[in-house]
Design goal:
Elements lengths: L7 E13 L2 E10 L5 E7 L4 H11 L28 E2 L5 E6 L2 E2 L2 E2 L4 E5 L19 H8 L3
Antiparallel strand pairs: 1-2, 1-4, 1-5, 2-3, 5-8, 6-7
């Protein structure tokens, strides 16, 4: 048996962050839908302690009104176990490329891994259609069948 773990990348707008102590705990990610609304699609928290402290200095000047005009982060979760769902909104100016493994209901199923900043990409280019190319199990079976 061979296990093939599918990994994809997506360019996402950084629409906010959550704090963890005195530094950034995670970045909140968004993608624009066809109506131009920015929807929350997940988070990334794959930074070292030093990087998280540096992120706070870098992101504080971008604080502003919530960029999420569609679905937004927060609310009750069975996974949060009483942790705060508070977050700091940012103007939609930064784009991050993240690695993800699965999408469920137009959200990343698990936390993503930060890959790199994308200063060459405009936030408006970060759209939900990046997730439409998800390879489903039926398509994977068809792809792996011997000719």
């Amino acid at each position: 048996m061979i296990k093939v773990k599918q990994q994809r990348t997506a360019d996402c707008v950084v629409g906010g962050y959550r704090m963890s102590g005195d530094s950034v705990g995670s970045l909140l990610l968004g993608l624009y839908d066809q109506e131009g609304k920015l929807n929350y699609v997940g988070f990334t928290s794959s930074f070292s302690a030093a990087e998280k402290a540096d992120l706070l200095v870098e992101l504080e000047p971008l604080q502003g009104e919530s960029a999420f005009t569609g679905s937004s982060p927060g609310g009750a979760s069975r996974w949060s176990r009483g942790r705060s769902s508070e977050w700091v909104p940012l103007r939609p100016e930064r784009v991050a490329e993240v690695v993800y493994d699965q999408v469920t209901g137009q959200r990343f199923r698990h936390g993503t891994t930060f890959h790199r900043w994308r200063p060459d990409k405009a936030p408006q280019q970060c759209t939900m259609d990046q997730l439409a190319h998800e390879l489903r199990p039926a398509a994977l079976a068809e792809f792996l069948e011997p000719a």
